[in-house]
Each structure stands twice: as structure tokens, then as C-alpha cells.
Amino acid sequence: MDAIDYTDDYLLTRFLSFVNVRSSTRDSLLSLPLSKCEVFTRDSARATPVKGKADIEDDQETVLDITAPHVPYDDTGRRTYEKICQKLDVVPSSKILRKLAESPSIDIRHYGLGPKGTMAVSVALVINSTVTTLNISGNNIDKTGILYIQRMMEENITITDLDVSDNHLKTFGAKAIGMMLQDNKGIRRLSIAGNEFTDLDATFLTKEIEIHPTLDYLDISRNGFGDIAAPFFEKMISENNNMTELNISWNQFRVPGAKCLARGLKDNMKLKLVNASWNGIDDEGALAFSDCLSNNAVLTELDISCSRIGDKGYAQVMRAFKKNEDLEVLRIGKNNIKEETVKLSIDLLKEITTLKLVLLDLSDVMLGASVVKELESLEEVHPNLEVVHGYTDSYGKRKMAGFADLGEEALWIIKEFIEEKDLTVAKLFAEFDEDGSNSVDYDEFRQGIKVRVNEFRQGIKQAKIPLSSSQVDALINFIDMDGDGDIDFSELVLKMKEITKKRKEEDEQRAAEARKRR
Questions:
Q1: Please, where are the H alpha helices in 382-488?
Q2: Could you tell me which residues are beta bridge partners of residue 106?
Q3: What is the pLDDT of residues 93-125, one digit of tens each?
Q4: Alpha carbon distance 117, 140 (integer Å)
Q5: Angular region, 32: left φ>0, alpha ψ -120 to 50, beta rest
């Protein structure tokens, strides 16, 4: 008999034949014999086929030809990948070849794969039995490419973490992903963010996600889901019994949609981390989330920042802590919240003795000195609670105060602290300088601030500098002008004078402009 080595050629033919089959006839075609429908599996790909000769009689059979060299089976898929690339006129990637052979993770985001490159990787991954994580986000794989991924995931039993974000998949991609989830029951993490899905695409995804037995993490952020799709997501969230983390941020949910999401969370018994930020939740939606928090005993982290929430909505959410004893992180910054409302919420939190909250993120909410003092007294009651406030990222620099970055703002906080406690820069620096060298290394500088915070929280020290860990890092980078890894006293003094002068000049400029307007 003539043996045919079609591990690559035949596999490619079968792969192409499958993805061209219309989904409406797929099930019937899969039931046909192999001769009528070219469907491949991992086992069939590894088999050694024989070209049949129907007219050959038994007595005409020859002895087995053992002169042909034996080619060992390549279970990494490298050889297959190279040959498929050659046939598709695609340049093979050395990175992909290396990852196929050596790594459980293939990260080729923004790699310019396109549909053909996606197909080559997909065929190789049907054979590969070691890769568990695949990230092909931002590759413009198109609807053809997602079909290849879908078919590969139906056959692959090792990949549990898949990221196909930012590939403009649209409705066709939503259908393909839904079919993939229907057939693949082993995937645990799925990212499909930024694929231009709309309300009409929700039906193709939510049902399969709802009943999926192993899906633990889902990222569907940066799409166009809104209030029309919200009831489908409500049912998906309330009925799903496996997912623990959901990112649904940067969509178009408004008040009706927010209410649906909150109702779903209220009934859910598994989700621990939910990111619903950058949606139009508004105060009414915040009220629904407040009701959810009052009744949910599972959720540990909620992000509803930058969601058009005002004082009323913020106050309602904070009241939920009277009943909620499980939420550890609440991100509600970048909303229109006044410092007076924050002060009232601080008074409320002081009264709650069973509070589990360790982080209250009020980013971009500006607080005056009096409210900051209230935060200090709050830490006496809840020493493990960190409250982040003020501008904390580059888009929201405090231009009115002239802060160039987070480090500059952190140094200004230290200046205010020194003035408030009637200290001097030299005295503060001496407390940081444990060895008396008049210089403090990075670890010593960080430890100095952290020790003061911890000791204040325990009532041992009488002073505290209200800086977060990110502010401390930025402060170190801002002060260390010569880059020698030490924080010199002279550097600290010079920077302090610099920002003081800058602040004074801007205050004078604003006053002059105000006089002109009058």
C-alpha cells in the first residue's frame, strides 16, 4: 500500500471544508461518514490514512513497505504551523513557533495576524496539547478568523484562557463565540471586549454564558450593550452559578439597564468582582445598586466609578454598608460627589462596627483640609480602611493648582501636613533618616511613611501623612532629581520651595484674572 503523510495537507483541507459549512447544516454534516463530510478531530489528525484501492484482490496485496522513513508525530503543532503558513503564503512567526514548543501561554496581541495568520495558529493548536492561554486581541482577525478560532476551540481541550478582544467581530463574531461556548465546556476565562457588539448581539452570548459550567471570568467591556440588552444580562447574571468576575464597563447602560444589572447581582450567589464603571448609572441606578449591596452577601469588589452618580446616589450606596458586611472594595470615584456628602458618609462609616471595607476609591473627588481630618479620625475606628481621593491619573491633573503629576501633588500634601502639625522639613526628614546619614534610600523612605501611618492607626504615633502607595511611589520619582537612588534633604527642600512658588504664582494669576472680570 502507498502511505500518505497528510498530517498538514489533509488537516488543512478538512479545516477549510468545515469552516465553509453553513452553521444551519453543521450538525447533519457531522453525522455523515468521513467520505461525505470532511470533519477532523485530534485523533483522526494523528492517524495514518491509507489510500483505498477498491479493485485490489486479497492475493494481490504486497508485503508492507518498511523502507519509508518514519516521521515522529509532532504534538506541539510547530511543523503543522510552518507548512500551513507556507501553503497560505504567510510568513511564519518565530515567536509563535517558540511558544508552541516551550510555553503554556501564547500572547500575540496586536501581532497583525489577520484571518490567514489566525488560521495557521488555529490548525496548529488543534494538535498542540500544552498551550492553556491564548491572547490574540487586536489582530483584525475578521469573521473568517473567528470561525477558525471557534472550530479550534471545539477540538482543543487544553486552552482555558482565551482573549479575542478588539477584533471588530460584530454580530457574526457574537454568533461564533456563542457556538464555541456551546461546544467547549472547559474554558474558564474569556475576554471579548471592544468587538463592537450591540444590543442585538446579546442573545447570542448571554444564554450560553448563563449555562456554561466552568466559565469563571468574563470581560465584555468596551462594547455597545445598552438598556435593550439589559434584561438578557440580568437573567445571565442572576442564573449563572460559576462566574466570579465580570467586567461590563464602558458600555451604554443607563438607568433602566443599571436597574437590570443590579437586580441580577442581587440574586447572584457567586460573583465576587464586578466592574460596571463608565456607564450612565445615574442616581436612580445607584439606588438600585444600593439595594443590591444591602442584600448581596457574596460580592467583595464593586466598581461604579465615572457613572454620572451624584450626591444622592453616593449617599444611598454608602447607606448600604449598614447591612452589607462583605464588600471589601468600592470604587465610586470620578463622579460628581461633593465633599460635604463625603463628610456625612464618613460619619456613617464611623458608626458601623462590622465594616469589612478596606478600600474606598474616591478618585477625582477633591476634599478640603477639614474633611481630610475627618478621614484621619475614621482611621482610628477602621485602621484597615484606605480612602483614595483627589486626582490620581494623568487625564485629571489638577490644573487649577498647577500639579504636574501625582508626585507633585503628594509633596504638596506633605507640605500641608508639616504646616498642620507645626513641624519642619528637617524634623520630618530626621524621623525618616534612621541611620543619620542625611540621606534616605528608597526602602527607608517608603518604610518611614508607612510606619508613621501604621503607628498612627494603632494609636502609637501622633502623626500621619495621608498618602496612598501609588502616591508614595510617584513622590519618590518626583523628588529624586539626581537619580542616585537616595532622597537627599536638599532635594526635598528644593522641590518643596519649587511647588510653593509655583502655587503662589498661580494663585496670584487667578486673583488678577478675577479682578479683571469684575
A1: 406-421, 425-432, 442-457, 469-479
A2: 134
A3: 999 999 999 899 999 999 999 999 999 999 999
A4: 10
A5: beta
Grid cell, residue 422, equals: 507645626
What does the alpha-carbon distance between residue 357 and residue 378 come to, in Å, rounded to a whole number? 12
Beta bridge partners of 486: 441
pLDDT digits (tens, 9 = 90+) for 320-341: 999 998 999 999 999 999 999 9
Residue 217 phi, psi dihedral angles, 5° rounding: -130, 135
Q: What DSSP line would sit under 228-242, residue for residue?
A: TTHHHHHHHHHH-SS
pLDDT, tens digit (0-9, with 9 covering 90-100), for 341-380: 999 999 999 999 889 999 999 998 988 888 989 998 999 9
Mean pLDDT computed over 304-319: 96
Residue with cell string 438600585: 288
Provide the total of helices (H) and of strands (E) in the chain, helices listed first: 20, 13
Please report, rounded to a whole number, the percentage of residues in the chain having pLDDT higher than 70: 70
- What pLDDT band is residue 10 in, cutting at 50, 70 and 90? low
DSSP state of 138: T
Beta bridge partners of 510: none
Residue type, 449: I
Q: Which three cell numbers stand for residue 7?
A: 498530517
What SS3 class is residue 467?
Answer: coil
Cβ-contact 109, 137 below 8 angstroms: yes
Q: Positive or negative CA dihedral for 176, 182, 183, 186?
A: positive
Separation between Cα atoms, residue 339 and residue 320, nearest integer Å: 19
Vertex 185, ends 214 and 127: CA angle to 5°? 125
Closest CA to 163 of 208, 104, 219: 219
